TrEMBL record:
Record's keyword annotation contains Ion transport: no
Keyword annotations: DNA-binding, Transcription, Transcription regulation
Pfam families: LacI, Peripla_BP_1
HTH lacI-type domain span: 3-57
Protein name per the record: LacI family DNA-binding transcriptional regulator
GO molecular-function term, one example from the UniProt record: transcription cis-regulatory region binding
SUPFAM superfamilies given in the database record: lambda repressor-like DNA-binding domains (SSF47413), Periplasmic binding protein-like I (SSF53822)
UniProt-listed PROSITE patterns: HTH_LACI_1 (PS00356), HTH_LACI_2 (PS50932)
Superkingdom assignment: Bacteria
Length: 334
């Protein structure tokens, strides 16, 4: 017969509730009792029943993740980080792809509520008032990942997009480039677009290169959109010798456009991306880029949500992780 939690409690000479605490919150149990329980679990080969745990703690031990584009390689790293953290913390993970569709996102929140998820990580999207109202109305704790809001006191974890973009553009300027353009996100549906634009502007202004401020074209998150934006940018400003792209996929689209026009990268034009996707070191030329700690962001988001669920608050409300510039083959001195 399969061993039960009662069998573990009897062998360890503790209460059933103590066994439950050891399974879910081991630090809350004194070491001597914890050791007896774990010894009993090992001897009996006991496996906790998730449904039973839910009844005891009134929790599903499931977290939800809302992402805007599951085909984007950035989110593969985010999901991997969250999944690993969930395994460590004892949660299952449910993932929903919103395609940046408001009605779909709101329906997913309803689905999460029906499934009684314990909390939600809301990733890489603008927290519109209707989203906030729905989450609060459903009484689902949530944290923001690669996003933020100053309208509400919501925990968040991200990099400093403005500072990271500034570092990328300052790097190009220090290489001697004076004609610098940018391929950016459309600002009307992007949380990262405006601060990365501001970092671009700050670097140019500090270095007296204000003539480049208008040399920007925008794209909608995909390679093919960046390819078209690069066509528009270089048609309008053929004198450009460097381009800052707000995503590695945009950098790849830009380089592909230039290659098709027989413009050599980095011989004639330097290109810097943003993210450091796995593909950035496989692409030809290998991308110079701003590296986000993608896996760590996902992992930390799960930890932060767990902290909120267990304690009711977080130690750091708006948390930022470090970025770094990785210099590869797509940039060179002017």
């Amino acid at each position: 017969m399969k061993p039960t939690i009662r069998d573990v409690a009897k062998m360890a000479e503790v209460s059933i509730s103590t066994v439950s605490r050891v399974m879910n919150y081991p630090d809350s149990v004194v070491e001597s009792k914890r050791k007896r329980v774990m010894d009993a679990v090992q001897k009996l080969q006991y496996q906790p029943n998730a449904f039973a745990r839910g009844l005891i703690f009134k929790k599903s031990f499931t977290l939800g993740l809302l992402i805007p584009d599951i085909e984007n390689l950035y989110f593969a790293g985010i999901i991997r980080g969250m999944q690993d953290a969930c395994i460590k913390l004892g949660y299952s993970l449910m993932i929903c792809n919103t395609d940046r569709d408001k009605e779909r996102l709101l329906s997913y929140i309803d689905n999460f509520h029906e499934k009684q998820v314990d909390g939600i990580v809301f990733a890489s999207d603008v927290l519109y008032p209707e989203y906030y109202d729905k989450l609060v109305g459903c009484r689902i704790p949530f944290v923001l990942l690669s996003s933020h809001t100053y309208d509400y006191e919501i925990p968040s974890i991200e990099v400093d997009d403005e500072a990271a973009a500034y570092d990328a553009v300052k790097f190009l300027i220090e290489l001697g480039h004076k004609e610098i353009g940018m391929i950016g996100f459309n600002h009307d549906n992007s949380i990262a677009g405006p601060p990365r634009y501001e970092g671009f502007i700050r670097a140019l202004t500090e270095c007296g290169l204000e003539q480049n401020i208008g040399k920007i074209r925008y794209a909608n998150h995909r390679f093919e959109h960046a390819y078209e934006a690069a066509h528009e940018l270089f048609t309008a400003y053929p004198e450009l010798t460097a381009v800052f792209c707000v995503a590695d996929e945009f950098a790849m689209g830009t380089i592909s456009y230039l290659k098709d026009r027989n413009i050599h990268v980095p011989g004639q034009v330097s290109v810097v991306g943003f993210d450091n996707l796995r593909m950035s070191s496989m692409f030809i030329p290998k991308l110079t880029t701003i590296a986000q700690p993608i896996y760590e962001l996902g992992y930390r988001a799960a930890e932060k949500l767990h902290e909120l669920l267990v304690t009711g608050s977080v130690a750091i409300l708006r948390e930022r992780m470090d970025h770094r510039l990785i210099v590869r083959e797509s940039s060179r001195e002017k």
